[in-house]
């Protein structure tokens, strides 16, 4: 039996929500095309499943962080363009080229490694170049843009398809954050003008992540790299109004819900202290439910300390003790109707109530990204194609249509 399927704990992946979110982001970013970012196993949702749904919905391509992620998609039958968001290690360049992944370049060493790989594999290597405009993580130094991009453009074995940057604080709504993002976009545009003056015009220019695509129209260019918004989470709650205005009142739909079932109940007296550490007495007589999911599965141990709750029977129930590696205990009060087999929702909707990944993030002092990618591999992802309102997607720009179809397989 596959790991994780021998106990009642799972994550439901709403594929219709993926399609809705892509449609919304297409409307927001139009006429720019959408690239679906499926790194980190699709932000914890299952990269292969999300990628196929995204491609069916009409995205221009996919983006991943490392070569292994791209190979997994190719082995699963994905033929759409796959952009590697960072430069690959020299010893991984040949694998990237063999699997028709699109390398990102920003160092002479990286360029040389990809050229060697293309020479060994054959054909011509399509690449993007990344420039650092203020994120200061990876990317080409601004003063090196003309020489480096010129050398890539002139290389006989390389085809310069894209030029891009990454925004550091596009999710911020302070005047300082907005000003910094505007400066990044302005610097990126300056590089594009300088390149054009030398006759270099990359076909795919991109800067916007989810936050940039929503809140900074000037950053959209030809393509937006949609990450967290694809999975139904806002980079900043204030961005909901922008999406609603662009889509006729629609909103992003969370894709993942984390669910389990009650596996045991016990009646405990007031003052009993369940779980490790005996940290807190029950305030009154209680039905305490045991649920088979814990911090090894991505339920933060600190969730108990910060007042974490779950949904059972459509009602919020507080944790009764510390989160353990494989289980949690839930204080159901005097509700005698809670029984073994009842569904427990840790993240998601049950009845009229909802607990979002962002609620966990707020309790933990982190971001929803970390919550979602932290859900462990032994929690099976169960796709669910729920019927729901479809949002028409915007058509891709004609100049990007070459990025929509499969690329020829090299011999």
Question: Could you name the key traits of this structure?
Answer:
411 residues; alpha/beta; TIM Barrel; Lyase, Ornithine Decarboxylase, Chain A, domain 1; 7-stranded mixed sheet; 12 helices
Structure commentary:
It is a single chain. This protein has 411 residues and is α/β, with parallel strands linked by helices. The chain folds into two domains: 15-235, Alanine racemase (TIM Barrel, Alpha-Beta Barrel); 256-355, Beta Barrel (Lyase, Ornithine Decarboxylase, Chain A, domain 1), CATH 2.40.37. It contains twelve helices and 18 strands. The protein has helices spanning 15-29, 39-43, 47-57, 67-75, 93-98, 108-121, 145-154, 175-197, 210-215, 240-247, 357-364, 368-373, and strands at residues 9-14, 33-37, 61-64, 82-84, 104-105, 125-130, 158-164, 204-208, 223-226, 256-261, 264-268, 286-291, 309-312, 315-318, 328-331, 343-350, 353-355, 381-384. Helix 1 packs across helix 3 (47-57). The longest helix is centred in the middle third of the chain and has 23 residues, at 175-197. Mean pLDDT is 92; it is low at 386-399 and 404-411.
């Amino acid at each position: 039996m596959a790991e994780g399927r021998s106990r009642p704990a799972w994550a439901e992946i709403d594929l219709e929500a993926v399609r809705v979110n892509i449609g919304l982001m297409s409307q927001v970013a139009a006429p720019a095309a959408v690239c679906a970012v499926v790194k980190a196993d699709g932000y914890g949702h299952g990269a292969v499943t999300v990628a196929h749904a995204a491609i069916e919905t009409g995205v221009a391509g996919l983006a991943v962080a490392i070569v292994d992620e791209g190979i997994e998609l190719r082995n699963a039958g994905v033929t759409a363009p796959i952009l590697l968001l960072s430069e690959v290690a020299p010893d991984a360049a040949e694998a990237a080229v063999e699997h028709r992944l699109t390398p990102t370049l920003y160092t002479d060493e990286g360029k040389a490694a990809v050229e060697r790989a293309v020479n060994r594999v054959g054909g011509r290597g399509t690449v993007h170049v990344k420039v650092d405009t203020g994120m200061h993580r990876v990317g080409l130094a601004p003063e090196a843009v003309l020489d480096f991009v010129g050398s890539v453009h002139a290389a006989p074995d390389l085809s310069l398809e894209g030029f891009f940057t990454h925004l550091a604080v596009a999710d911020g709504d302070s005047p300082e954050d907005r000003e910094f993002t505007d400066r990044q976009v302005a610097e990126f545009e300056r590089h594009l003008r300088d390149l054009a003056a030398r006759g270099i015009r990359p076909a795919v220019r991109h800067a916007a992540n989810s936050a940039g695509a929503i809140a900074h129209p000037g950053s959209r260019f030809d393509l937006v790299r949609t990450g967290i918004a694809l999975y139904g989470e806002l980079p900043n709650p204030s961005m909901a109004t922008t999406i609603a205005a662009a889509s006729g009142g629609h909103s992003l739909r969370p894709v993942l819900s984390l669910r389990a079932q009650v596996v045991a109940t016990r009646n405990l007296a007031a003052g009993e202290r369940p779980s490790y550490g005996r940290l807190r007495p029950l305030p009154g007589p209680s039905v305490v439910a045991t649920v088979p999911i814990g911090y090894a599965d991505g339920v933060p141990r600190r969730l108990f300390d910060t007042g974490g709750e779950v949904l059972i029977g459509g009602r919020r129930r507080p944790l009764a003790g510390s989160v353990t590696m494989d289980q949690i205990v839930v204080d159901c009060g005097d509700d005698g109707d809670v029984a073994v087999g009842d569904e427990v929702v840790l993240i998601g909707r049950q009845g009229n109530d909802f607990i979002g990944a962002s609620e966990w993030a707020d309790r933990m002092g982190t971001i929803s990204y970390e919550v979602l990618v932290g859900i462990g591999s032994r929690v099976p992802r169960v796709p669910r194609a729920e019927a729901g309102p479809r949002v028409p997607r915007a058509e891709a720009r004609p100049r990007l249509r070459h990025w929509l179809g499969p690329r020829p397989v090299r011999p």
